C-alpha cells in the first residue's frame, strides 16, 4: 500500500525550533523515500492551504516542532481540509503541549510526576516576585527545574541549584513563554521512551538513556555533536526497564495520544520512574531520541514511518 501513497512532510515553521524542524523533516523524507514512499517536504506557510485544496496528499507527517506542530492548531486545520495525518488529534495535542495541564492529567491517572507550580509572567509580577520565589524555594526546595510551560528542545530551561539562581532562571524562561513551569528537580537517570502504535496498540520501544556532558540536556546538548552520550537501550535493570515502558505507555494513553509520542522521564536511584513531559511531535534528526529507539529495537525508521502513514490513511478513508 505504501508504495502508492503520496505523503507531504511539513517542517520549518516560525518557532524557535525552525532549524531543528527542518532537519527532522529532511530525515523523515529520506526515510520514507528509502521505504519507497513518494514524499515531498513543505513549509507551513501561506502556500500550504491552497496546495492542500488543489492537490491534497494522501497523508501528512508533521515534523514541525514548537507551537505550530504541537499545540493542536495545525492538526485542527488539517481536519478542516479532511487531510489525514500521523499523530494525535488536535485536542490531545493541546493537552500534551501545555505541560502543567498534562502533568495534572498524569497525576490524576496515578502516574508520578515531580511536584510543580506554574507561574504566568503577569501574576508573577503582580504578586511580588521576591515573595513568590522565596515561597517556591521554601515549598519545593532546591534544586529546581525551570522551563517554559509550552515549548521544547530545552529552550529557556535551566536547573536552579541555589535560591539565588532562581530569578535569573525565571527571566530566561520568560524570554520563551509567558508562563514558567517550576518543578522539583529529581535526580537520577534521564530517560526517553518512544511509544509507537503500528496497529496492535501502543508499544514502548527500548528506552534511551541521555548523558549530557555538562549535566543538563539543554538545546546545545541536544543538537551539538559531542555534548551528549546516548545509551540505547538504556542501562536499566530488566525489572526497571519493564516499569519504565509501562509508565510511558500509560502516559501516552492517559493523554489520549495515538500513533507515536516520546515520553521523557527521570528514573530515581530507587528505580522509580517520574514523567517530566510528553512530546507529540518527536524530533527525527540524527541526534533525536525516537530514531535511536527505533534502531535499538532492530527496526527500520522508514518502515515504521510508512506503517504510521498507512494507519493515518486508513483513518481518513
Question: Which terms summarize this structure?
Answer:
globular; 13 helices; four-stranded antiparallel beta sheet; alpha+beta
Question: Would you summarize the structure shown here?
Answer:
One of its GO terms (molecular function) is ATP binding. The chain is 40% helix and 21% strand.
Topology record:
Blueprint: E1 6-10, H1 18-34, E2 38-42, H2 48-54, E3 59-62, H3 67-70, H4 73-80, H5 90-97, H6 99-108, E4 116-120, H7 121-126, H8 129-140, E5 144-148, E6 158-160, H9 166-174, E7 179-184, E8 189-196, E9 203-204, E10 208-212, H10 219-223, E11 228-231, H11 238-254, E12 260-267, E13 273-279, H12 289-296, H13 301-316
Parallel strand pairs: 1-2, 1-3
Antiparallel strand pairs: 4-7, 5-6, 5-7, 8-9, 8-10, 8-12, 10-11, 12-13
Amino acid at each position: 500500500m505504501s508504495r502508492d501513497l503520496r505523503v507531504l512532510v511539513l517542517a520549518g515553521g516560525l518557532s524557535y525550533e525552525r532549524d531543528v524542524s527542518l532537519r527532522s523533516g529532511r530525515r523523515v523524507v529520506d526515510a520514507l523515500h528509502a521505504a519507497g514512499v513518494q514524499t515531498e517536504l513543505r513549509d507551513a506557510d501561506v502556500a500550504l492551504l491552497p496546495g492542500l485544496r488543489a492537490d491534497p496528499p494522501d497523508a501528512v507527517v508533521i515534523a514541525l516542532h514548537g507551537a505550530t506542530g504541537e499545540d493542536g492548531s495545525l492538526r485542527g486545520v488539517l481536519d478542516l481540509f479532511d487531510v489525514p495525518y500521523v499523530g494525535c488529534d488536535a485536542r490531545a495535542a493541546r493537552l500534551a503541549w501545555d505541560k502543567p495541564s498534562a502533568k495534572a492529567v498524569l497525576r490524576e491517572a496515578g502516574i508520578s510526576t515531580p511536584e510543580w507550580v506554574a507561574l504566568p509572567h503577569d501574576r508573577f509580577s503582580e504578586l511580588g516576585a521576591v515573595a513568590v520565589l522565596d515561597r517556591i524555594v521554601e515549598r519545593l526546595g532546591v534544586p529546581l527545574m525551570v522551563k517554559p510551560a509550552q515549548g521544547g528542545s530545552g529552550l529557556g530551561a535551566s536547573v536552579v541549584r541555589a535560591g539565588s539562581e532562581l530569578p535569573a532562571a525565571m527571566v530566561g524562561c520568560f524570554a520563551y513563554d509567558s508562563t514558567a513551569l517550576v518543578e522539583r528537580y529529581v535526580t537520577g537517570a534521564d530517560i526517553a521512551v518512544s511509544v509507537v502504535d503500528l496497529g496492535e496498540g501502543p508499544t514502548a520501544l527500548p528506552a534511551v538513556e541521555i548523558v549530557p556532558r555538562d549535566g543538563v540536556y539543554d538545546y546545545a546538548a541536544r543538537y551539538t555533536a559531542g555534548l551528549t552520550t546516548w545509551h540505547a537501550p538504556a542501562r536499566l535493570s530488566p525489572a526497571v526497564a519493564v516499569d519504565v515502558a509501562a509508565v510511558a505507555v500509560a502516559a501516552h494513553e492517559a493523554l489520549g495520544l495515538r500513533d507515536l509520542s516520546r515520553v521523557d522521564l527521570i528514573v530515581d536511584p530507587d528505580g522509580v520512574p517520574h514523567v517530566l513531559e510528553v512530546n507529540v511531535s518527536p524530533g527525527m534528526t540524527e541526534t533525536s531520541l525516537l530514531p535511536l529507539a527505533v534502531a535499538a529495537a532492530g527496526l527500520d525508521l522508514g518502515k515504521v514511518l510508512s506503517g504510521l502513514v498507512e494507519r493515518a490513511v486508513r483513518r481518513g478513508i
